[in-house]
Specification:
Endonuclease III, domain 1, two-stranded antiparallel sheet, binds iron/sulfur cluster, 2 domains
Length: about 210
């Protein structure tokens, strides 16, 4: 892990919050909807996920029991708009079966829950941590591609777990803060990093520290 940054993570948070304000993320009616969204959002835009969630709700499949029993071909059609639809339909079947069989799973302590989620097919670290933070309301900082990129620009280099430990040890253990911070990074990543408008970066000057 390399840390050469000059700004603290709290300064970065304040800059992002001042710029965007509260993000109200994750937009879901139930914790299970967060789980579904976390699987569907892999390698696609959120707008596509919204469409798929709408489709699932229309078919009354937004609960673990119903989704686990859904016809897989119908499911593929409902989530086709998110890409990798066969793989995602299968993942949704598996994860919903697991949630249907383990209704109290989100009550487990964060690390235990994370470990269980990571053992499920198609659930990687970012997906597991999104579920722990946004569905279970437990303190796990989510690291995504935008977070890695932003950290790189700030002189903070590391792998997933190193970056996660860095955020968690630098910030107070605060679920709403973790939720808001990740949402702000994603918003910033979409509007600035992804569009390569580094000369206007509010975190580093002229694309440099
Ligand atoms: S806008 Fe550019 S310089 Fe700023 S954090 Fe994103 S990638 Fe880095």
């Amino acid at each position: 892990m390399i840390v050469k940054h000059k700004k603290t993570l709290t300064e970065v948070y304040n800059k992002l919050f001042d710029h965007f304000g509260k993000r109200y993320w994750w937009p879901a009616e139930t914790p299970f909807e967060v789980v579904v969204g976390a699987v569907l959002t892999q390698q696609t835009k959120w707008e596509n996920v919204e469409q798929a969630i709408h489709n699932l709700k229309e078919r009354k499949l937004m609960d673990a029991e119903s989704l686990s029993r859904a016809d897989v071909e119908e499911l593929e059609e409902l989530v086709r708009c998110t890409g990798f639809f066969r793989q995602k339909a299968n993942r949704l079947k598996n994860i919903s079966r697991f949630f249907a069989q383990n209704p109290g799973i989100l009550e487990k302590p964060a690390d235990e829950l994370r470990k269980v989620l990571l053992s499920l097919n198609g659930v990687g670290e970012e997906t597991a941590d999104s579920i722990v933070l946004y569905a279970a309301d437990k303190p796990k900082f989510v690291i995504d591609a935008y977070t890695k990129r932003m950290c790189g620009c700030l002189g903070i280099e590391g792998n997933y777990s190193e970056l996660q430990s860095f955020f968690e040890s630098s910030l107070p253990v605060d679920v709403p803060l973790y939720k808001e911070y990740h949402a702000l990074i994603v918003e910033y990543g979409k509007r600035f990093c992804g569009k390569k408008i580094c000369p206007d970066c509010i975190l580093v000057e002229n694309g440099k520290m």
